[in-house]
Amino acid sequence: MNFTRWSARLPGTQRRAAREDHSSVPAARAEYTRAEPGAAPPQGGPVGVPLPSAPDLEDLSARDILGRLPALVALVHGTGHHVAYVNDAYAAAFGPRPCGAPAAEVMPELTEIGLLPLMDQVLRSGTPRTVKSRKAGDGRSYTVTCTPVRPDEEKGRDSGVLVYAADVTDHAEAAERLRASEGRHRETAVTLQHSLLPQELEQPDDLRIAATYQPGGTDAAVGGDWYDVITLGAGRTALVIGDVMGRGVRAAAVMGQLRTAVRAYARLDLPPHEVLQLLDGLAAEIDASQIATCAYAVHDPNEGLLVYSSAGHLPILVRDENGTVRRAEDPIGPPLGTGGWIHTSGTIPLPPGSTAVLYTDGLVERRSEDIDEGVGALERALSGATGAPQVVCDRLIRSLNVTAEHDDDVAVLVVQHPARTGAAAELFHNASLDLLGGIEAAPRARAFATGVLASWRFPVELCDLGVLAAGELVANSLQHGTPPMRLGLRRTDRRLIIEVTDGDDHLPRRRRAEPADEAGRGISIVASIATSWGSRRTPGGGKAVWCEFVLPR
Hints:
Number of strands: 21
Shape: elongated
Radius of gyration: 40 Å
Helix content: 25-40%
Oligomer: single chain
Low-confidence stretches: 1-40
Number of helices: 14
C-alpha cells in the first residue's frame, strides 16, 4: 500500500509539484573538513565536523514518518473502520493488528477508551476531534486525536480516520495526585467548618429555630459561612449570621475566631451595633486581609421586635402570618475589618406567627444575574413557605436551586415566633407593676409577686423563691436606682423570669458583704437561689436586672 497518497490527502498538506534545484547552493550540502582562517563555523555544528545532509520530504514515505513516531498511530478506513496501518509504537503497546479487519473486533483498546463513537463522528463531520487523558486497559492514559483522511479515488479507497494517541500517563498520575491532595485539603476544611458551627442549636422558649449549612461543590473550596443562636437570659435571644470572604482552611479558621468572639461579646448583653463595633476591631486584628460580613439581631419577646445591626450583610427577611415579606434594609454598615465606621441598630417587628430568615450570599448570588434579583427570588419563595423551621429551610434551598454541585457555601437560619392558642397559650403569661412611692413600694411588689405566682399555679417552694428574688431586686433598685421603676414577671413553658428596670445605668455586681455590713447581700441572695441572673443597659437609658428559675418538668 502506498501511504504517500494517503499523506498527500491529510488536511493541511500539499504535494510539491517539483523538486527544487539545490545546485545553486552547494554549500548547503558540502562537507567541511577543515576551517579556513577567520571563517565562521557553519550553522548547526563545530568547525571541522561534517554536517549530514537532511533527507528531502519527498524521499520519505508516510510509513517511514509514522513508523518513527514515539506516539501511537493507527489508520482505519471506511464506515466499518477497517485497519489499514498501525505503527511500531502502537504494536508495542497493544500488539500487532491485522490489516483489513474491523477495528471494533481487533482493536478492543479503542472500545475501552470510548473512541469508536468519536471516530464515527469524525468520519461524518470531517472535523478533527480530541479526547484527553483516557485510561486504557493496560492502565496507561492517552490523549487521542482523530483526524479525518480524504478518500483516494484513484485507488478506490474510502475515507478514513488517522488515530494519534500520546501517552500522558505521567501527567494523568500527577493530576490525580493533585486532585487527591486538593480533596484531602477540602475534606480538612469541611471538617473544620462543621466543627466550628453549632453542633446543636439552642432553642429559646419563645422561638422555634432551624439552620442549614451546605458547602460548595467538590470544585469549590470551603468558605467561611457561619450562623449562631445565643440565649441572653430574661427570654431574649441573639441571632447571628456571617460570611468570611475567602476560601479554604484559613477562612474557616477566621470564621471560628469571629464566632467565638461574638458569643463572648453577646454575654455582655450589649446593643447589636456595639457588638459589631467590637467585632470590627477584632476582625482587623485577626487578619487585615480578611473581610467578613455579619448580621447580629436580638429578639425580645416582651417587645415583639427584632433589634438588629448589619456589617455589610444581606438584609434579614421577615414573613408575616399573612404571607407578606418585608426587608430589614437599614441601617447597613461596611463589612467587618474595614474600621473607622460607627455602626447603628435598627428594628423590625417579629410578632407571633411571623418567620425571619437570615442567610449568606451563596443562597441568592448568581454570576449571571444581579444579587437583588436573587433576594427577590428568595422573597417570593419565602412568601409561600410554611411549616416547621426545618421545612422552610429545605424549601428555600430547593426553590433557589441550590444543589450539591453549587459553587458557593450556603448558610440559612430560619427563626419562627409561633402564635400560640389554647393550652399552649396558657403556659405563657406576662405581668408587670410600676413601682411608685418610696420604701412602701417593696411590700407592694412582694404582694404583687405573691398573687401573680399563685395564680400561675406554681409549687409553693417556687412561689416563695420567686417572691424572695423579686423583693431583693426591687429593694436593690429602690436603694441604688432612679425612677421610673418597674417590676416584670414572665412565665414560659420552661422558666420563670423576674426583671426589674429603673432609670439608672450603673450595673450591679455581685460582691462579698462583710459581717458588719447592712447592705450588699441582695444580688448574692438572688444569685444563690436563682438558676441564672444578669443585667443590661436598656436602649432608652437605665438598666434592667433579671433572674430566671427553671420550672420543674
